[in-house]
Design a protein that fits this description.
206 residues, alpha+beta, 3 domains, two-stranded antiparallel ribbon, 10 helices, 38% helix
Amino acid sequence: MGKPLNNLQGFQFGSLTVLQLGKSNGNGAIWLCQCKCGTQKEIRASDMVEGKVNSCGCEHRQRIAKANVTHGMKHTRTYRLWGAMKSRCNRINQDYSCRGITYDESWESFENFLADMGEVPYGLSLDRINPNGNYEKSNCRWATQEQQANNKRSSIFIEYNGKKQTVSQWAKELNMNHHTLRGRLKKGLSAEQVLTPLPADEVKAS
């Protein structure tokens, strides 16, 4: 049974405690209430009973302030990268969706994504450690463009002397042309032969 509107003194509605009957404005009984934040305010009885009002307005302001803290980041690079991640996974009949790649369900919320990953450091982007895995905390990192380029599904790896790197990484380390290394791989040469620097006369010929 509902609370009688003619005597609400002492009742609590959310953060509000009804103190005494206030002034009537012709639209129903008005009661003076005290909010848990300490603010006193006159509120219409029906609004409290029907659950339309349960604080002096402070809780609403707090929610807005909290939202502004997060959505104050709406124009940041971190927010844009989060949005791009969702867009890539949600596009129908596109590469990611066809491969079944998605993101952690909790990352539907930017706040959760931010809590897990933090803000993007300068010059880095969101990268999946396993390019065939999902976007989730255990499989994501902030990475350089070079790290991302060497972490694609199309990357070709060469393992030699216990060290495994992409063709591009070996080419950079050995100061060689990556096209040369790829060409040698196509010929079926061993890792040692592929990574052996070109003789001086062969370099001139190339």
